[in-house]
């Protein structure tokens, strides 16, 4: 419990002056409240003596008004502080989530992470703004009331303390259950978001397979689970507040009976003393019940805080990391038909490989015996070596699952190789920051991500400062003219969530135009023609050939048209580069390539 309070208190760092002022105002309001019974006592006593109570009543009114004003300002400052803490936590979460290690992201569910930024922080706001200060002011006010009651009547105080202690025991027993139920509820809320995101992300599939009911049930189970936990927490909280209420009523009754008997019997204290004591009892009990409520709220918030804290502790992608066990020399030549081009270290007149003139400058990209697995002991790449010269089109072919997209992910440095070396322009990736490595790369992946926003925003995503001429140039190159003309608003027309208003081929061309706008040194294309018709496919082939004048192009190819335009083809089989050359050569030298070509893995243009 103390740990939870300390953790929540740490969150208020940067807002401490505001907390201090708000606490002071709340305490002042409480002090003004505590003064009222004293004045009330005098009002009662002077009335019983037959003196006019008006001046004292005026003081009482002023105390009321001052208490209300101090309380309102204090409350506002606290709420503002709560919003500030939530804003800070949300900024930190968003920044962390956007920089997460890819391996970590693979393990997580997007919806659950989003819920941590939204639902969990909202709960945290209430805890920070209400519970912490309620706890501090409640404790202080209770202590003040206790002292005054001790001064007025120690015996009656003993009665109050005894009954309130009973309530404290009940509260302590219930708090643990409230915390567990609340943690479970927040986890379930995260799961609701994750399940809903899963269904909405595949809505056409859900509809076609008439799975709405199944998906609704699946999400519904999580909703029900959140409901059950919420009800359980509410039940425990209700029992808790009943226990506190009982203690309050009980202590009032006891004080009234015992105190009344003593006043009536002419024992210690006047009627005014008894009235003052009763008012103090109420001032003790109210802050005490707010302390108990705050403890309950903190337990509820602890579940949310744990989830937020966990997300904030997830590993970020470091810009630089120590080089893995790099192979000393890139000499691991794949077996059999792997020719010079596959190994950058292999001797020969053109290190770039056949079909590409020798270039004295280091290649744009060089992979030497690169090995990688997403999970330990399940290697996906088992020894990949290839070079992409500064100006040239290299096609990567291989069966589905051979590791082609994985290789792209390593080149884009979304993952780091377990072994082997990647060099950009002759410089080992391990010696470059990730941002620096990526600065020269453009990537069009299989998902051809199009973001919600305008066409212009999507194109300029890779180069936010690009001018109109540049944008029009890539629109032309990617044959996006008809899309611009058709779209209401042209370049400034919105594309809908995930580019939903575009066809798959149009999305592919948007992604390509965006990549070209970046004017990269190395262009990575993961099967860029899969959704294009024959006309667009031929045009794209020409565009790619032209692009090689400005940059190196590495393209994952499933189409004959793409490989036929390539200066060189690299064959990947079961995570290894096994051959390299031109189409005609490979048909005779590489059985794997021949199989790919004849089994129509490499397809002709779409009709
Ligand atoms: N994020 C991931 N986590 C774990 N395994 C993965 C991940 N991504 C891919 N894999 C696995 O790695 C292997 C290679 O996948 P990859 O996508 O690189 O193949 P590919 O050659 O691009 O296939 P395709 O031509 O079908 O796109 C596959 O067995 C795949 O299941």
TrEMBL record:
InterPro entries: AAA+_ATPase, ABC1_TM_dom, ABC1_TM_sf, ABC_transporter-like_ATP-bd, ABC_transporter-like_CS, P-loop_NTPase, Type_1_exporter. It is a multi-pass membrane protein. PROSITE patterns: ABC_TM1F, ABC_TRANSPORTER_1, ABC_TRANSPORTER_2. It comes from the Bacteria. Keywords: ATP-binding, Membrane, Nucleotide-binding, Transmembrane, Transmembrane helix. Residues 365-599 form the ABC transporter domain. The keyword Iron does not apply. It is found in: Cell membrane. Residues 20-300 form the ABC transmembrane type-1 domain. Residues 325-337, 346-360 have a biased composition (Pro residues). The chain crosses the membrane at residues 54-78, 131-150, 156-175, 236-257, 277-298. Pfam families: ABC_membrane, ABC_tran. Gene3D superfamilies: ABC transporter type 1, transmembrane domain, P-loop containing nucleotide triphosphate hydrolases. The keyword Membrane applies. SMART domains: AAA. Residues 317-360 are annotated as: Disordered. This is ABC transporter.
């Amino acid at each position: 419990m103390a740990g939870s309070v300390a953790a929540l208190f740490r969150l208020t760092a940067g807002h401490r002056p505001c907390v201090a002022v708000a606490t002071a105002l709340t305490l002042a309001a409480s002090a003004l409240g505590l003064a009222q019974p004293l004045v009330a006592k005098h009002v009662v006593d002077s009335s019983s003596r037959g003196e006019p109570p008006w001046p004292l009543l005026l003081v009482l009114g002023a105390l009321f008004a001052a208490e209300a004003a101090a309380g309102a300002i204090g409350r506002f400052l606290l709420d503002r502080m709560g919003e500030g803490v939530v804003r800070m936590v949300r900024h930190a979460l968003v920044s962390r989530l956007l920089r997460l290690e890819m391996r970590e992201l693979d393990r997580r569910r997007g919806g659950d992470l989003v819920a941590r930024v939204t639902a969990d922080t909202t709960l945290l706001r209430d805890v920070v703004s209400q519970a912490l200060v309620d706890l501090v002011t409640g404790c202080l006010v209770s202590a003040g009331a206790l002292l005054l009651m001790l001064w007025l009547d120690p015996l009656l105080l003993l009665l109050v303390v005894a009954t309130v202690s009973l309530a404290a025991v009940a509260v302590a027993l219930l708090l643990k259950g409230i915390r567990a139920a609340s943690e479970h509820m927040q986890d379930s809320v995260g799961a609701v978001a994750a399940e809903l995101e899963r269904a909405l992300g595949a809505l056409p599939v859900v509809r076609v397979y008439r799975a709405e009911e199944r998906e609704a049930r699946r999400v519904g189970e999580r909703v029900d689970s959140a409901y059950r936990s919420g009800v359980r927490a509410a039940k425990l909280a209700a029992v808790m507040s009943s226990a506190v209420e009982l203690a309050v009523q009980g202590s009032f009754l006891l004080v009234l009976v015992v105190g009344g008997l003593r006043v009536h019997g002419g024992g210690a204290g006047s009627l005014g003393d008894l009235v003052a004591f009763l008012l103090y009892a109420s001032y003790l009990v109210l802050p005490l019940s707010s302390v108990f409520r705050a403890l309950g709220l903190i337990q509820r918030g602890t579940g949310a805080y744990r989830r937020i804290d966990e997300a904030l502790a997830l590993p970020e992608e470091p810009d630089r990391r120590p080089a893995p066990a790099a192979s000393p020399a890139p000499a691991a030549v794949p077996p059999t038909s792997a020719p010079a081009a596959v190994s950058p270290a292999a001797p020969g007149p053109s290190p770039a490989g056949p079909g590409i003139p020798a270039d004295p400058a280091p290649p744009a990209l060089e992979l030497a015996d690169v090995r990688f697995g997403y999970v330990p002991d399940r290697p996906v790449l088992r020894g990949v070596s290839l070079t992409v010269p500064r100006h040239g089109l290299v096609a990567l072919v291989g069966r589905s699952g051979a590791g082609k997209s994985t290789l792209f992910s390593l080149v884009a440095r979304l993952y780091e190789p377990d072994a082997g070396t990647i060099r950009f322009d002759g410089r080992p990736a391990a010696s470059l920051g990730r941002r620096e490595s990526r600065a020269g790369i453009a990537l069009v992946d299989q998902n051809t991500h199009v973001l919600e926003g305008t066409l212009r925003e999507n194109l300029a995503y890779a180069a936010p400062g690009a001018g109109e001429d540049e944008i029009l140039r890539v629109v032309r190159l990617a044959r996006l003219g008809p899309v611009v003309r058709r779209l209401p608003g042209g370049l400034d027309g919105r594309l809908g969530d995930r580019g939903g208003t575009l066809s798959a081929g149009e999305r592919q061309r948007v992604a390509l135009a965006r990549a070209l706008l970046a004017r990269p040194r190395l262009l990575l294309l993961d099967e860029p023609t899969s959704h294009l018709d024959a006309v667009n496919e031929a045009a794209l082939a020409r565009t790619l050939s032209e692009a090689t004048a400005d940059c190196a192009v590495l393209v994952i190819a499933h189409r004959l048209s793409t490989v036929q335009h390539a200066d060189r083809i690299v064959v990947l089989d079961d995570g290894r580069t096994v051959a390299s050359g031109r189409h005609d050569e490979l048909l005779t030298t590489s059985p794997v390539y021949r199989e790919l070509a004849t089994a129509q893995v490499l397809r002709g243009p779409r009709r």
